[in-house]
Amino acid sequence: MAANSQTAPRAAQRFRHYLMIGITEIALLHGVPALAAPSDPSQQDSEVKNFHIAGQPLASALSAFAQQSGRQISYDPAITTGISTKGVSGTLTPEAALSTLLNGTSVQFRRLNAHTLILERKSSSSITLGPVRVGGAVTHQDPTGPGVGYFAENTMAGTKTDTPLIEIPNSIYVVTKQQMVDQQAQNVAQALRYSAGVYSEAQGTNLTGAAYSGENGIRQRGFVTTQFVDGLQSSSYTAAETAFLDRIEVVNGPASVTYGQTAPGGLIGMDLKKPTTTPLRQATVGFGNWGRYEATVDVSDKITKSGNLRYRVAAIGVTQGTQTQYVDYKRVGVLPSLTWDIDHKTSLSVLGSYIYTPDSGANTVVYPIVGSLLRGPYGRISRSVFLGMPRWNTNKTTSSMFEYQFRHKFNSFLDFQQVFRWEASDWDLQNSYFSEQVSASEVKRRAWEVQGYNRTVALDTRLTGRVTTGPLHHTWIVGSDFRQIESKTANMFGEFDTLNLFSPDYNFVPCIANPYACGSTGYLNHTSYFQEGVYFQDQIKWGGLSVILGGRQDWFNTTNRSGSRQYNSDGTSTLSGGSPSERPQSAFTWRAGLVYKFDFGLAPYFSYSTSFVPQTTSDWRGKPFSPLTGKQFEVGLKYQIPKTEVFLTAAAFHLNEDHYLVGDNEHPNFSADAGRVAAKGVELSANANITKDLHLTASYTYTDIRYAKNNLTASKIDLATLSETELVAEQGKYVQNVPRNMMSAFIDYTLPRSIFHGLGVNWGIRYIGFTYPDAANSYKVPAYVLFDIGAHYDFSELSPKLHGLKAQLAISNLTNKYYVTGCSSDQCYLGQARRFYGNISYNW
Questions:
Q1: Tens digit of pLDDT for each residue in 542-596?
Q2: I need a labelling partner for 523 at 20 to 30 A (CA). Which of 83, 117, 263, 473 fits?
Q3: For residue 16, how many other CB atoms are within 10 A of its CB?
Q4: Backbone angles phi and psi of 62, in degrees to 5
Q5: What is the CA 332 to chain-centroid distance, rounded?
Q6: What is the DSSP letter of 757?
Q7: What is the DSSP secondary structure assignment for residue 657, as one 8-state letter?
């Protein structure tokens, strides 16, 4: 009887709750004045009030919020039972204050109209890092933040200003944090698998996954890419650690106007995690095949009561084997950061990181063509076969970084921003590399040792202003940046030996450990360069029309000291070379573009842009190469369905680069100027939160890149005999290792909770078209299709006491397909076998 007496009032409360919602919605639809929205909704969005609500039970905190905000709140009292809040204090919009109150709870809100907010139970314990959601839409996204689901609306990468993607007249695609989490991407290369215009794993299973100096073969529109972190070019091998990133941005096409030396294909921009305005606490424990174990921590909170001083600490520890014997991956790293809002106009963020990778999982991924691409008499070479020497097998990197981001807003018309970074990377590698195939079962390999470091200092300083001239609204930038990079490497090569691929004997120990014993040869290279640029840009808006104009002047100088040392059996050595050489260079780059946004969400655009990359090397005669210069026309359509988080892009481009470098066929170990390379293509992309439970990313890429103006010849290889047959002209041939067609799609769906109680599934497909291995287009490396699947479960759907606990599993290459990602002459890169990663995460 007691139970019935409690049930009846609760049922009555719920009845009143739903009745009030129904009356409110009817009133809104029929224009009842008391509930009508204000004539200027944006004024309500920007309204700020002083809030002082202490930590307490959520029900009483909501009552205090209603009094202090002037908002009506409608909710079922049952959803607040047993839930407390940490409170909120400060000058905030009502929506931001309510978001803070509800942070870390199982309750979320949506806005019915300008005065009424409806509370409901959360559907998922997703990472709470993004902007405040109001009424199912985002008030304003952080342009460097994690996005919402698979949707990002704003970016800093395209213009160095906070600009909607739809208003930028070139292709920019964002990989959100949620997408990285759902796909369990362990590095940037894996996170880019579904991005338009990007071929991210041309060199197989390299776990470093960085975009520095073409590491892992990441290409955009057919050209090797460049990596930027928080807007500054990075020379770190460990910048690809996804545990430290909030988002990854793909800027396709020339970007030299705002970033200096970048390849014409574009750049990869990464944004590091920084303190959040709402508390964040997350810990994960991961697992996977090949003995993977991982733990991460990500904590952010305020230090002062007002929240003007906040911190964040992200950390990772991971150990695992790989599909190849004797190749392991181990890493520990930490990224602490601090944000200080000095006053309402001035802020300073300070970040530091340290990453130690004693095993990078990147040794020996090259295999002979017979046994990998071609099935030999002994079958396929197992992906587990190690072509190196277990006792000569080190690949260690260490990376450290310090960065600050400063901003001062003089007034509503003028901002000052500055970003500074110092970073250092060291590496130590002892390995052997595949040299040539002796027979169907044996290969020749050579011992190799290299030690080196990079030291980088970079600074970007800019003024951003906003001014109106008649009907035109201008957002302009004037800035200057510089980077000083010092790089030093010492290489040593030992003797050759042979290895049986199907019955390997690893007893060989190279005498390179004692170079005098075998007359080894060492090569030293010490390079330092300095680049400085000044740039300007104006974004002009007139109604739905946006026009961008920009230019940049760069000055570049490099000093190179290189030489060789020959070790003699009598214990002596001879050093040759080593005299420094300097190469000053300069260039002016510019871009112009326009986009018109219609009221129904469609935005056609057109742009022209140029690029510049200075060269530090010389041909076989010692003649320095000319700088790489590029120019591109691009036309496209962008479409954001109004009042949704569905963003579609279609782009067509024509891109030329002059002085493209290729290997010199007549002079091994040297490069040659291949003249002009022309690329044209089409990119289609979709990033969408179709519903709150259904997320989608999909892309199609067509790239036709050829040697357009070239007087070089290349040797054609007969695939049957693997011998050179004839010399053919390179002009008109396709550039090697660039697929003409790529297609991908990834869907994540949280199933109906009333039936599946928190279960979600995802599925992906990746198609990579055929490629050519060389400039002679001797043969084709076949296309391949890969499937990815995954699942996640939110335990809070079982019980409110389990709020924040979530389990996840992701499997890539579901069918365990044996495939080759690319070849070069008689050697090929093997793709990744079936891989499964999972984790258990807890947010509190």
A1: 999 999 999 999 999 988 777 777 777 666 767 666 556 677 889 999 999 999 9
A2: 263
A3: 13
A4: -70, -35
A5: 20
A6: S
A7: E
